[in-house]
Amino acid sequence: MATVELTCNLSSECQGAFIMCLPGGDLCQTGTTEDGAGGRVAGSDFSIPAGSTGEVSVALTDLGQQVVSGPSGFSAGVIVDLLNYGSVMNTTGSDTGSFSLTSTDPTSFPSGATAGCGGTVFAGPDTSCPFAENVQQAYLNSVNQGNGGTVTAVSPVTGQTYTMQCTDGSPVVCTGGTNAVVEFYR
Questions:
Q1: Which of 27, 36, 82, 123 could cross-link with 170 by S-S, CB 3.0 to 4.6 Å?
Q2: What does pTM read for this prediction?
Q3: Can you name the CATH fold of 2-90?
Q4: Domains of the chain: which residue ranges?
Q5: Rounded to 5 degrees, what angle do the CA atoms 117, 122, 124 make?
């Protein structure tokens, strides 16, 4: 659960929805789309009295639980949809807006991952975060068509190059090397 502070500048009560999504996606929906775009990480309905500021409790989705449990920050697109007015704030296509999500819930990772490497990258028990980040970058540079495929990446820990077989969908799951598992949302 996260909390955001919203101000109602109207002469009547502000009612609507507050939604946080993976950055760069065209859609913001629960779960993920077939090509991995969008992806809701948190959301809540709200009601703020006219001319006042209130705190809104925002529930994290399973995806949100995973991305906020990493050691570093996470950027998200924000949509505020106001009843009778429509979207009054939408940062999903830009870098404006700044919100911070943290969770006091137990750490949550995608199936097969045992560590969060920051943002949307996760590593299995025999995999370092620097290698996981290199696998994600190799995937985004070469495959990135939603069709899965094979990528090679260097491990900064061992200095060796490993071949990883990646699935399509979201999360992308890459396995290979020496029992390495890398998962990330694209």
A1: 36
A2: 0.56
A3: Immunoglobulin-like (2.60.40)
A4: 2-90, 115-184
A5: 115
Mean pLDDT, range 128-144, rounded to an integer: 87
Give the DSSP per-residue string, the chain.
-EEEEEE--SSS-EEEEEEEE-TT-S---SS--TT----EEEEEEEEE-TT-EEEEEEEE-HHHHHHHTSSS----EEEEEETTTEEEEE-TTSS---------SPP---TT--EE-STTEEE-TT--HHHHHHHHHHHHHHT-SSS-EEEEEE-TTT--EEEEEE-SSSSEEEEETTTEEEEE--
pLDDT cut 70: percent of the chain above it:
74
Contact present, 132 and 121 (Cβ < 8 Å): yes
